[in-house]
Amino acid sequence: MNNYKLTIQYDGARYKGWQRLGDTDNTIQGKIENVLSEMTGKTIEIIGSSRTDAGVHALEQVANVKLAGEMTESEIHQYLNRYLPQDISVTAVTAVHERFHARFNAKEKTYVYKIWNESYPNPFMRKHSLHVAEKLDLAKVREAASYFVGEHDFTAFSNAKSKKKTTVRHIDTIQIEEDAGFVNIRVRGNGFLYNMVRKMVGTLIQVGLGERKLEEIQSILESKDRSLAGFADAHGLYLEKIGF
Amino acid sequence: MNNYKLTIQYDGARYKGWQRLGDTDNTIQGKIENVLSEMTGKTIEIIGSSRTDAGVHALEQVANVKLAGEMTESEIHQYLNRYLPQDISVTAVTAVHERFHARFNAKEKTYVYKIWNESYPNPFMRKHSLHVAEKLDLAKVREAASYFVGEHDFTAFSNAKSKKKTTVRHIDTIQIEEDAGFVNIRVRGNGFLYNMVRKMVGTLIQVGLGERKLEEIQSILESKDRSLAGFADAHGLYLEKIGF
């Protein structure tokens, strides 16, 4: 068996997220596994780096899959893009070491959340960004974001469904960038709890709108109370990069 | 009556183009007129600068409309964006001179055609660009494009349905620009015949793929034969700017 690394982009709008849920489900993992199973005539399982949530997009998701070496990387790549739905695209297929594991070897992940921050709606990005019509106070958002950087117990910014063993995570950087009408919030860390980025971004938006004081980030973190944080819609969130 | 200039963006994917076709049609003009008629309680007609075709998008379309001065610009603007479908957005409403006419006063128009020129599909731009998987020879495309610049009879690059009195148009510039996997073909001119940009771009793509010699642009122009030019799909085309 050969081990292949798949690099994948997807528009998550119409999917129930990355993780396969059943035999006939509408998930990214399920769609890719179905094509690979058709291709090989065997039941294929793939391992993704990050279990993106329903509606979340990916600019660069990584997965690995073990296949009998009957086809070249290029043949696998072409087969996948020929039979996958148009909202899922494989950007690269590379043979990797047999011990490469997309989830266990992922050392850091970057997510970006796109906010359309103009008074009028953006017709092209309506399903791919969150529209916040009132101008965000970015000085406040940046200062509030700095409370997240470093190692913290993120229980208050997670969902009770999270099954991770520890709720401590390390955030390396949060960048708040303005880009032609958008405010992009880019978060890099060693891992994220279920709903964690969306709860962080939702709370930062509340700060940017003056609905909440920036010092509250600290007290919400310390409270470990899941009911306090804000929550931003899935459709503005993109998995941007996996670091190995 | 006051005269208002509307600046409009739209995702044309699900519309039959700009121009109203009937009472219950699915056109951009129709959608905007319906909202303004609801707003005023009267039958309202708007005049657009450019009659974009079915499936064509606009980053900046301009229209003008005469309304009794009962509402402020800001109130009209907010009403429109509140009731328009999410794929049509009004970016500005400005009171203008009573003689301003969006179509007759338009001196130049810029269209941009977006080609996704990577081997793998782009899941986010699948309805908003044309996927050309084979690399285009841009040196050849640029040289071919130069044949279009200046004043020409564009009969061969028009559709027989075109009702314009003259088929002579002046192209000011054509720029071919690479942008992170995209090739954007930007055409500025004093006006365009029906299907003209799509026929020009379709022919340039044939040149870029080596399916046609670049000198043929000249002979197709001279032939005035509508059957010779290429034809690119509507969904990669955007009306970008109207100059007055």
Automatic annotation (TrEMBL), chains A, B:
The keyword Isomerase appears for this protein: yes
**Gene3D superfamilies given in the database record:** Pseudouridine synthase I, catalytic domain, C-terminal subdomain, Pseudouridine synthase I, catalytic domain, N-terminal subdomain
Question: Catalytic residues per the record?
Answer: 53
Q: Which GO terms describe its molecular function?
A: RNA binding; tRNA pseudouridine(38-40) synthase activity
The Pseudouridine synthase I TruA alpha/beta domain extends over 8-105, 144-244
According to UniProt, the reaction catalysed is: uridine(38/39/40) in tRNA = pseudouridine(38/39/40) in tRNA
| Entry's Gene Ontology BP terms | tRNA pseudouridine synthesis
Q: Give the InterPro entries listed for this entry.
A: PsdUridine_synth_cat_dom_sf, PsdUridine_synth_TruA, PsdUridine_synth_TruA_a/b_dom, PsdUridine_synth_TruA_C, TruA/RsuA/RluB/E/F_N
Q: What class of enzyme is it?
A: isomerase
Q: Which UniProt keywords apply?
A: Isomerase, tRNA processing
Protein EC: 5.4.99.12
- Locate the residues binding substrate: 111
Q: One Pfam family of this protein, by short name? A: PseudoU_synth_1
- Write down the superkingdom of origin: Bacteria
Q: To which protein family does this belong?
A: Belongs to the tRNA pseudouridine synthase TruA family.
Subunit-level organization: Homodimer.
- Task of the protein: Formation of pseudouridine at positions 38, 39 and 40 in the anticodon stem and loop of transfer RNAs.
Protein name in UniProt: tRNA pseudouridine synthase A
